[in-house]
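Task 17 of the worksheet. Students: predict the tertiary structure of the chain below and write it out as structure tokens. Keep your answer in the requested format; marks are given for formatting as well as content.
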Amino acid sequence: MKLVDVHCHLNHESFKKDLPEVIEKIKKAGVVAVLVSGTNPESNKEVLALAKKYPLIKASLGIYPIDAIGLAQDEDGSHGQKGPIDLDAEFAFIEENLEYVTAIGEIGMDFHWADKEETHDQQAANFRKIIRFAIKVKKPIVIHTRKAEKECLDILEEEVQGKIPVDLHCFGGKKSLIRRAAELGFYCSVPPNIVRSHSFQTLVKIMPITQLLTETDAPYLSPVHGERNDSSNVPLTIQKIAEIKGLSEEKVADQIWKNYVKVFGNK
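Model answer:
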């Protein structure tokens, strides 16, 4: 079986001391492709360096919505962007390194860390601009939708129109929004904490197997609360999807690999 993690953060501080060992652990688990997502100019440089060093790692260069508008870093200091991001400058950097870039993300909108009323217009404007850039460079997009699921779907429906593939990372929308995402032809990537998350289990029940992908969001969303997550936990997600869908693990893994190739290519 070929397994894939389409969204994680192996450049996170928690991996600094043992990343080579983690990479070997991931390989032994059968994971053959890992998309590491950047969030701002600094982390995009880190992701690019990892993709050049490790053939397993693919670069997904992103502009996290909170970083884009220059708000404070999140609770564990994993972003740390100081001031708003110059989108045009970051677009230029991405284009300069486009041969190493598999996807654009994570990008999107977030009303968990940002006040919706105060930041909606700016977040929406940034999101539209980044989507248009991704369409220009013909790259799939990985979407962050925290507490902004409907708003993101509204913009994606208007802007994308089938021009590039869309992966909704850790989508937390209600059932009607999951169905809408499926009807729009979008994909949803599922993390290993599906083993204890009823919301992700519901998502898998609703989304067709042909529109599912596996991710980890490592070091977050571990199958065991409080433990550091990494891409070697993808098999646990495969097992749970197989259980929910009533399919063999081999069939699930094979279909998700096909989905990955369709969305991101097989470089």
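Marker's comment: The mean pLDDT is 95. The CA atoms of residues 192 and 234 lie 6 Å apart.
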